[in-house]
Automatic annotation (TrEMBL):
This is ROK family protein. PANTHER family: BIFUNCTIONAL UDP-N-ACETYLGLUCOSAMINE 2-EPIMERASE_N-ACETYLMANNOSAMINE KINASE, ROK (REPRESSOR, ORF, KINASE) FAMILY. PROSITE patterns: ROK. Belongs to the ROK (NagC/XylR) family. InterPro entries: ATPase_NBD, ROK, ROK_cs. The lineage of its organism: Bacteria, Pseudomonadati, Planctomycetota, Planctomycetia, Pirellulales. It comes from Roseiconus lacunae. It comes from the Bacteria.
Amino acid sequence: MNTQISSIIDMPATESEPVVMGIDLGGTSVKLGLLQGEQIIARTSILTNEYDQPRDAFIQARRFAEQALTSAGYQFEQLQAVGLAMAGVIDEATATLMETANLRAWHGIGFYRELQSVFGKPVAVINDANAAALGEACYGEHPADSLTFLTLGTGVGGGVIVGGRPINGEHGCGGEIGHVTIEYGSDARRCGCGKPGHLEAYAGAGGIVRSAQELLAESSQESLMREIDDLTSEKIADAAEAGDKIASQVVRQTAIYLGRAISMLAHIADPDVVLLGGAVTFGGHATSTGRGFLRSIREENARLSLQQIGTTIEINFASLGNDAGMLGAARHASQIAFR
Ligand SMILES: [Zn+2]
């Protein structure tokens, strides 16, 4: 397979700053990037399902690195470290994938060993949500040494950065914000993990659809959503944007749950910035529904939190999109290699 260098920033590499590589291993694609300081000098992505083994994907990544470094006037020797971001629970000592919804065939493989044998460089492995948090903290529109990141999608993931470094915790569960409990009643929903009342059961894509179905069943009010068979969080966002009252109520309810979770986290980590990324942000800054969603989250956090953190913490949408994980992986590699 040919690796295309999809872009080389028109800035020649300088001798002084080291080059690091970030690899973001996703269920669909593997994003690769070479960074020098804050500058991406080359990037590309390859398809995950073209590789039976992670080793084959890493060999392809190395080929890309060699080719891109040559184009930038470098040699492969000048690559200082490689960082890998991946989904799931990772054993820190060996970087073995312990638990994940995707990439089941890759379970039980020690990724440090594989990466090191392919690249022959210092390597670092990091959970993808922590990587995205680190990427946003270092390269996003709201950089901060202390930042909490929530990724809203099918699941709710998260990363907590304190003092410029991600908190992984003693069991690999630090920053697992989706599993914070926000409902305690006997009728609290079950999370995908099996436990009751977790944020993900309310603010994940499936949870949002369920909220809509419950509100539709309780109400006799007209709603555009009654005509939709396969309701999704995107269609709920569209209905809300078209002025649908029940859909707007779903958005607000989701915001309230997120505001509760953020308030809880704010009293533990007291970050400068809290960012919301992922696909389920109801349009983000681009729609009035998205902006209203953000406003409601801020209001709920302010309502529940100590005054010092109720309004001073910057709560906003993330800015790096799909690049955050790759950038964070590269940053993590430089933290490990140059500490
Ligand atoms: Zn859970």
